[in-house]
Specification:
By secondary structure, the protein is of the alpha/beta class. The protein contains 20 helices and 15 strands. The chain has helices spanning about 5-15, 25-30, 40-50, 55-65, 70-85, 90-100, 115, 165-170, 170-175, 175-185, 200-215, 230-245, 260-270, 290-300, 315-330, 365-375, 390-400, 410-420, 435-440, 445-460; strands at about 20-25, 105, 120-125, 140, 145-150, 155, 190-195, 220-225, 250-255, 275-280, 310, 340-345, 360, 380-385, 405. The longest helix has 17 residues, at about 315-330. The chain is elongated and about 90 Å long. It comes from Paraoerskovia marina.
Length: about 475
């Protein structure tokens, strides 16, 4: 049975955290940028060579060369020209790939969209350079060749893999790359993106899964585009192929269009961010009610020692951080690196602190870029009371995809956001929110509200299953 989006995100997210994640990019991502697919690339040579209908595209390319109108060099130059004249630009999907903390990418695509999106990656496009992967932090392996430039003219960096013979002789012609692919498949977790069962390169996945299934287990994942429901035969064949992959140990997430990959990657980015909690809100430190909610949240967060608690040093952040530090010191679990206060740029001296808590980070940034930058590297936000600026920060957090948990009982902006979403709370951590838990955020008992908040924050942090 095909996997769910949440299960895929959770499985690959764990692989990222363990440093074992690899992404394999297929043709669907390049076609999303306007590049022609294999059918289009071979259309003119096939017509001029009078090749009959053939669904096996590498075999069709073989027949084109065998027929003789297009010898090998002419076919290569035709494909090169078709890709080069398109002048594609990386899409938002390519940009999202660059934001994932993944150090190794594989692709069968000839174009340079992936390396343009990940400029810090070392590109390996010929078999003889595969050994450089041992000395670089981030890499892209272009296992079927790549297009390059020479004095502004497009060229092949190495002979491209095109025909059925190229596929069958791959291990002989690209021995280092083939060996590394097998080793990587056996030792890491692959996420295959941009493939469909009509893609000529899908056989790489099919071959790996069949030959290495018993040793690789069930850790590999793929996103596959399903055919239209109107074509019952194609859908039936698709379902059988999905089942074949699953029996070989590959979990399959089905989509209807490659455009669905972008929101999937956005969720993966959130899942793989640091386990950082941003505390927003404000209130009067002399207000007993406000202090009560801050203290209760600090107590509830004290045992979350793997989370970084971060704020800009306002009343909410400072009160919660101080309470967390007090408890952790008493329990010998205190680590200053896990409680961070970030101060925005100012010519004035830093504000006085009545005690030393956590780590202080001083920035030259003004409030907005500092908050937005911090939110972009956080998984969740918790809100205590607050006013106009807090409302603004809630909007920024939602735009950054963070899970926002308002302690509504404290009043202010937190209560307003909670009330607005009372009947239909936003998803947290890719899952729906328990309405009963959301309701307890509005409790007038600070400890009840704080416990509910931490339960939902755990979900936003992807701690729950």
């Amino acid at each position: 049975m095909p996997t769910s989006q949440y299960a895929l995100i959770e499985a690959f997210g764990r692989a990222v955290e363990q440093g074992n994640a690899v992404i394999f990019v297929g043709a669907g991502l390049s076609q999303g940028a306007g590049l022609p697919g294999w059918e289009e690339l071979l259309e003119t040579p096939s017509r001029e060579s009078e090749i009959p209908s053939e669904s096996d595209l590498p075999l069709k390319a073989e027949y084109i060369i065998t027929e003789g109108t297009y010898h090998r060099e002419r076919l290569e130059q035709h494909i090169l020209a078709e890709i080069a004249t398109t002048s594609p630009r990386p899409t938002s999907t390519h940009s999202s790939l660059s934001l994932l903390p993944v150090n190794q990418f594989w692709t069968t695509n000839y174009d340079t969209l992936l390396e343009e999106s990940i400029p810090d990656a070392t590109v390996v496009e010929v078999d003889s350079r595969i050994q450089v992967l041992g000395s670089v932090n981030r890499s892209i392996v272009k296992m079927h060749g790549s297009i390059g430039t020479d004095d502004g003219r497009h060229k092949w960096e190495s002979p491209p893999v095109i025909t059925r013979s190229d596929y069958e002789n791959y291990e002989r012609d690209w021995p280092r790359t083939a060996s590394l692919l097998r080793a990587t498949y056996l030792s890491k977790t692959f996420l295959f993106l941009g493939f469909s069962f009509t893609d000529a390169n899908i056989e790489i996945l099919l071959s790996l899964s069949r030959r290495l299934s018993s040793d690789a287990g069930t850790r590999h994942l793929t996103v596959i585009r399903r055919p239209s429901a109107k074509d019952s035969d194609a859908r039936r064949l698709h379902n059988l192929k999905v089942r074949d992959l699953e029996l070989s140990g590959v979990r399959v997430l089905e989509i209807d269009d490659h455009a669905e990959i972008e929101p999937l990657l956005e969720r993966l980015i959130r899942r793989t961010r640091p386990t950082r909690l941003f505390i927003a809100g404000s209130g009067e430190t002399t207000d007993t009610k406000f202090r009560g909610y801050c203290s209760a949240l600090g107590v509830a967060l004290a045992n979350k020692i793997d989370w970084e608690i971060c704020s800009l040093g306002g009343p909410s952040g400072w009160c919660v951080s101080r309470e967390v530090a007090r408890i952790r010191r008493a329990e010998n679990t205190y680590s200053p690196e896990q409680i961070v206060t970030r101060f925005r740029g100012s010519t004035a001296p830093p504000p006085p602190m009545d005690e030393r808590v956590g780590t202080a980070v001083f920035s030259d940034l003004t409030r907005e870029p500092l908050v937005k930058g911090t939110l972009a590297e956080s998984r969740a936000m918790v809100v205590i009371e607050g006013a106009t600026r807090t409302k603004e920060e809630i909007i920024w957090a939602a735009e950054a995809g963070l899970g926002v948990v308002p302690i509504a009982g404290s009043g202010g902006a937190a209560q307003e956001y909670w009330q607005e979403n009372r009947d239909n709370p936003p998803e947290l951590g890719g899952q729906t929110v328990d309405i009963a838990v959301w309701e307890r955020l509005g409790s007038d008992d600070p400890h009840v509200a704080a416990r509910a908040a931490v339960a939902l924050l755990s979900q936003a942090m992807y701690e729950t299953q």
